[in-house]
Amino acid sequence: MNKRKVLILSAIDPTRAYSCIKYLYFELKKSKIYPECWCRVPETSMDTYKKWGDNVNSYCSKKIFQLPKIRTWYMKWIGIAKALKYRNQTIICHDLFHYKTCSIIKKLFPNTKLILYFTEIYNKKHSEYLYKLQRYFENHPNEMDLMIECDYKREEYRVEKNNVKRPTATILNTIPYSEVERIVEKERSENEKPIVVFSGGVHEAGEFSIIIDALREIDLDFELNFYCFGTDEAINSLKEECEEKLNGKYKLITNRPREEVLNRIRMADIGIVYYDPEYSINTRYAAPTKFFEYVSLGIPVMSSGNESLIKIINEYGLGEYMHENNVNGMREGLYRLLKDKGYRKQISKNEEKAFKNYLCYEVQSEKAIKKIVDVINEA
To answer: Do residues 270 and 302 lie in contact, with contact meaning Cβ atoms separated by under 8 Å?
Structure first.
């Protein structure tokens, strides 16, 4: 019996973010489908990546390929070579870096099945190169056999605004219940003072001033823990701002492996998610993995007012969100959570039930995985 094989092409590092690629890899293997995976994993993270199993590869596992221009061209050529190898089979293209290549291969070899898995909506506020990729997709929105989105609002947006006519499905950017059980220790003790956490990337100076300024105005005892990755310049800028405004009521933990971060933040009392909903359509419909990580760990959420997150928070009672997109909106929500331990405990109970029964990856991905497997079986 021939093994069913599939190619996964991504231009990101799934050991640090975009963990949906990892979960998809394992779900396909459960279905006796064997992925060949190409991602942009640096040499320092290859040991973590290789733990996935067989046939996981990186464009930049060697130092020379970490140089941006060399890496970009190498990634393009690998994409072309691998897409040709998998002609008349199935290619899963994560976001748009390889979409043009894969759509051309599909035109040349019509029996090729192409699945496009979106986690970003590129726009003019991204780099010129990424915006060009978005424009190409907008002009060729129906070259794939199936489109997967990471949020239901985004799926609607693609269908309505990008005129997608092909079959679609959504897998929220959540994590498996089984992974939480495996990674995270179950004991959770009570903190002497509430711990507020933010976990994620830092890209530019002042990016999280709204969080720092809001906490500075709250006259309650707390400790803010930033678990961040980013450039030295961005992290140093964040540290300087915390030093200036928080009077020692913070810790800054940087560039740690994701599993270590999950184990560290499990003791937190409040988890902050902030994506400015007015910045772009990409942030307006943000529903990031960190949100679901907090929920999976029973950490009450303080969120920005993103449409997708508001709906989930309200439906399951998972915390607070900003009713105003300013420091006051952040401060009011954080104050309600910080001052009321009983309120936080009730939210944690809501989260435990909601995550296990509705929001975990096992539940959220079921229909979409079936569609993906059906497409692969047609190849």
So the answer is: yes
Asked whether 137 and 99 are in contact (CB, 8 A), the reply is yes
- What is the rounded CA–CA span in Å between residue 226 and residue 196? 9
Place of tokens 């059906």: 374
pLDDT of amino acid 185: 61
What tokens does 53 get? 């199993």
The reply to whether the predicted model has a pTM over 0.85 is yes
d(CA 117, CA 113): 13
Helices (H), the chain: 20-30, 46-50, 68-85, 99-108, 128-139, 152-161, 177-183, 209-216, 232-245, 258-265, 281-284, 289-296, 307-316, 327-339, 341-354, 361-364, 366-378
CA–CA separation, 355 and 368 (whole Å) = 18
Q: How do residues 239-296 score in pLDDT, each as one tens digit?
A: 999 999 998 899 998 878 777 888 888 889 999 999 999 988 999 998 899 999 999 9
Q: How far apart are the first and last CA of the chain?
A: 15
Please give the backbone phi and psi of residue 7, each rounded to the nearest 5 degrees, phi first. Answer: -100, 130
